[in-house]
């Protein structure tokens, strides 16, 4: 039991809202079916976020009765695939939330987060209120190669000074084409160096406008802006060739 309690201490940032209650519910369920303490500790450690974000509504005796199996058999099934516990004991209405959690987890892992770290937990919290945007963006993002995602992350950090946490909270950024990001950010940085832009701009205001609007509202701020803009695009074309 000390091993299990230590897990809660290690993940103190998670002890907020319903997270603790859900996690304790999973712990209680596994204890009720007489699972070994070491096995419980391993499952809780490796699936902390899954169980913390899923509310178990069915009692062990109900699950055992519905499945018509022994506690020992249920222990074996859950040890083989811990997420089966969610499928067996959570209400159907929890499935959507669990699926969203999986999408969020996959997304964060794809951009470089390490699961069950403090940074990972903070990033998950950033998604509150932005879940739908992330879910819509994640499928596209997950199709990109790791190198492309790393390049886009570096551009965001180098030109706008934004961290990985910012990227996690604004996944829409990763849906923009790498050339568009490179051209727009390079132009924006050049304009800032020339002193014609003094206030920081969001990535959205830089990337969202059409080329015509970007030229009008950014490029034309400097007399040599248009020449620089064309030069940036030519450099990109020559690199491809």
Automatic annotation (TrEMBL):
InterPro entries: MTERF, MTERF_sf. The keyword Transit peptide applies. One of its GO terms (biological process) is DNA-templated transcription termination. GO terms for molecular function: nucleic acid binding. This is Uncharacterized protein. Keywords: Signal, Transcription, Transcription regulation, Transcription termination, Transit peptide. Residues 1-16 form the signal peptide. It comes from the Eukaryota. Pfam families: mTERF (PF02536). Gene3D superfamilies: Transcription termination factor 3, mitochondrial (1.25.70.10). Belongs to the mTERF family.
């Amino acid at each position: 039991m000390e091993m299990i309690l230590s897990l809660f201490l290690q993940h103190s940032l998670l002890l907020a809202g319903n997270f603790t209650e859900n996690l304790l519910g999973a712990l209680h369920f596994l204890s009720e079916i007489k699972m070994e303490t070491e096995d419980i500790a391993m499952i809780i450690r490796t699936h902390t976020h899954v169980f913390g974000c899923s509310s178990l509504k069915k009692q062990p005796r109900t699950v055992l009765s519905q499945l018509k199996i022994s506690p020992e058999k249920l222990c074996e099934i859950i040890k083989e695939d811990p997420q089966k516990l969610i499928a067996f004991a959570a209400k159907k209405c929890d499935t959507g939330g669990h699926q969203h959690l999986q999408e969020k987890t996959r997304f964060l892992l794809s951009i470089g987060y390490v699961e069950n770290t403090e940074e990972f937990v903070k990033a998950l919290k950033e998604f509150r209120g932005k879940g739908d945007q992330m879910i819509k963006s994640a499928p596209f993002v997950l199709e990109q190669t790791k190198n492309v995602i790393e390049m886009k992350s570096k551009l965001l950090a180098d030109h706008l000074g934004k961290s990985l946490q910012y990227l996690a909270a604004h996944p829409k950024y990763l849906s923009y084409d790498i050339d568009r990001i490179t051209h727009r950010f390079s132009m924006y940085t050049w304009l800032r160096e020339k002193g014609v832009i003094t206030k920081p701009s969001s990535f959205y205001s830089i990337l969202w406008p059409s080329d015509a609007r970007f030229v009008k509202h950014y490029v034309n701020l400097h007399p040599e802006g248009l020449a620089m803009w064309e030069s940036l695009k030519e450099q990109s074309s020559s690199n491809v060739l």
